[in-house]
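Support case: user asked for a sample of complex input and structure output to validate their parser. Sending the pair below.
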Amino acid sequence: MKKTILCSGNEAIGEAAIRAGLRFYAGYPITPQNELTAYMADQLPRRGGIFIQSESELAAINMIYGASAAGARVMTSSSSPGISLKQEGISYISGAQLPAVIINVMRAGPGLGNIWPAQSDYFQATKGGGHGDYHMIVLAPASVQESFDLTRLSFELADRYRIAVMVLSDGLLGQMMEGLTFDEELAPPAAVEKPWALTGARDRKPNVVRSLFMKRPDVEKNNLVLQKKYRRAAAREVRYAETFMDDATMAVVAYGSVARIAEAVVRRLRAKGRRVGLFRPVTLWPFPSKRLADLSRRVKKFLVVEMSYGQMVEDVRLSVEGRAAVSFYGRSGGGVPTESQIERETLRCLSAPLKKRGR
Amino acid sequence: MAKSYLRPQTLTDVVTHYCPGCGHGILHRLVAEVIDELGIRNSTIAVAPVGCAVVAYDYWDIDCAEAAHGRALAVATGLKRVQPDKIVFTYQGDGDLAAIGTAETIHAANRGENLTVVFVNNAVYGMTGGQMAPTTLLDQKTATTPRGRQAATEGYPLKISEMLAFLSGVVSVERTAVSSPKEVLNTRRAIKDAFMNQMEHKGFSIVEVLSMCPTYWDKTPAAAARWISEEMVKYFPLGKLK
Amino acid sequence: MAKLKINRQRCKSCQLCIVWCPRKNLKLDGTLNEAGVFPAVVIDPANCTGCGMCFVMCPDACIEIEG
C-alpha cells in the first residue's frame, strides 16, 4: 500500500534504514544531521533495533564494526568533521570486509567550517579518507525521495559486497522537506548468509574478523580479494541520470543538490532552444566513467558544477581523457551556486570556441 | 588421586610469539581455563587489542574480532548489544585501554555494558619496542623515558581501575598479578568471577592484571616477577577495588 | 607419584618453573631444544609431589601433570 508523507531528507534516511532491516545504529550529535540521530533514538528501539549515542564519532564507527562483525545490519551517520573522525574505522571495516552503511550529511569545511551544505568531501568519500587501498560504494541522492531509495539500496549493496556504503547527502538535502512515497508492505532486502560472522563457534571452526595478516603474503592476498570485489562492484553498480542528453552538444555535470539547481537552468535554456543536457552521477563510486567517455565522443563541452573548488571535475576529466573540453564552476564554504551563476557559466561554455582536440 | 594439570582445550596447540617469561602467556592459559570450566567456548567472542596480544585469536579456539588500537570496548559494545546471549570479553594492554582507548573504556564502563575486560598492565608498550605506557612508574626507564619517567614532564602512572570503580555502571573492579603462583591462581579466580558477572547480566567487570615484560623491563622473568611484587604493587595495590 | 611431562621443544627457558618449584626439583637441561635454548627438565621424577606450581607459572603451557 503506497504511503506519501512530508519529511526531511534526514528523516527519510532514518525511515528507509529501519525499513531496510537496520538492527544497530550508533551516532553522535553534529549539525546538520541531528534529526537523523534523533529519529533513530525515537524509532529504532521500538522497531526491533538498538540505538546508542556514542562518546564520539570514532567510537560509533567502531561500534558498528562490532555489530556488523556479529552479522547485524548496521548504520552510523555524521557530518563532515565527524566523518573525518571515522576514517580509520572505515579503513578497518573495509580491510575486514564488513558490511556497513555510513551517512555523511556534508557541511562546509575545512576545519569546523559551518553548518551550511557543501560537497567538499567528495575526495574523502570516493578516493578513501583512510589509509590503504579501499573503496566505499558512494551514493549521491538529489532529493528526499532519492535519499530514501538510496539508503535502502545501500543496505542491499553492503551485504551483497561485504562493503561500506556511504550515502553522501548534504545540509540542504538533509534539512529540506519534500514529499516521500514508499510501499508500506515492502519487506527489507532479503537477508544474506553470513557464515563469517562472530556468533560463537558452535559446530564450526572459530571465525576471526580482522584486517591484520602477520604472515608476509597474506595482506597482499587480502588486498587482491578486495580489488576483485571492487572490480565486480564497478562493473555492476554504476548509476547515473541524464536529462536532455540525447541531442545535447554540451553537458552540465553535477550531483546531489547542485544537480537540482543545474537542472532548472538546463530546462530554461532548452526552452530557449539551446542544446544543453544534464548528466547526474548517482554513484560517485563506482564513477560513471564509461558513460562519460562514450558521451565525450559526441558531446564536446562539459561544465562541471560543484559545491567545492573542483573535486568530481577531476574524475570527469579522467573519464573524458581529453576528447572534450571540461570546464568547472564551483562555490564552497557554504556558498551555493545560484541559477544565474550556473546559467552564466553555461552560456560562456556554449559560446567558447572549440580548440582542436586529439582523437 | 592427585590433581591433574592439563592444557586447557580452548588454548590452541601452537607456540606463542610472546617473549620468554611474558605474563601474556600465563593469562592466555588462565582465560582458556576459565572458558573451559564455564563451558562457554562456543558462545564466547573475544575482542583482541592492538599490542602484543593482537594475535590472541591464534591462541584461543573461539570467535574473535580484531579492533583498531584503543577501540576494543566500542567493538565489544556493538558485538554484545546485538547478541546479548553471547559472552563478549576484551583482552587489552595498558596502551590500548588507558591511553588511546581511554574514552572508549570510560564510556563503555559508564554505560554499564555487560562486558568482561581482561586488562593486562605491564607498564610499557611491548609490541612497538618498550615505550612509556600510561602505567609506566615514576623513574621507570623506557624507550621514550630514557632517563626515567618524570612527573613534571610525563605526569603520573594512570590508576584507570580506581577511576572506573567510581562509575555506577561498573559492577566489579579487581587488580591482581601473575607474579607468583598464589597471584596467578587469584587472577584465575578473578577472571572467572568477571566472566560469571557477565553470564549473570550484572554489567561491566574489569580485572587489571600486573604482568611481567622481561624484555622491556630489562630483567629476567623471575626478577620481573619480583619487581611487580616489590615495586609495582606499591603504586598499583592489589585487591578488589569494587 | 605424580607424572610430570615437559614439552622440551616448546620451552623458552624462562625458568619461572625452576624458581617456583618448592622442592627445587627442576633445572635447565644441558642440550639445546629446537628453539636453541636450554629447556627445563625434572631432576628427580620421584621427588615431584605434583603440586603444580610449575604448571601455574609456565607462560607457554609446556608442562602437564597427570595426577
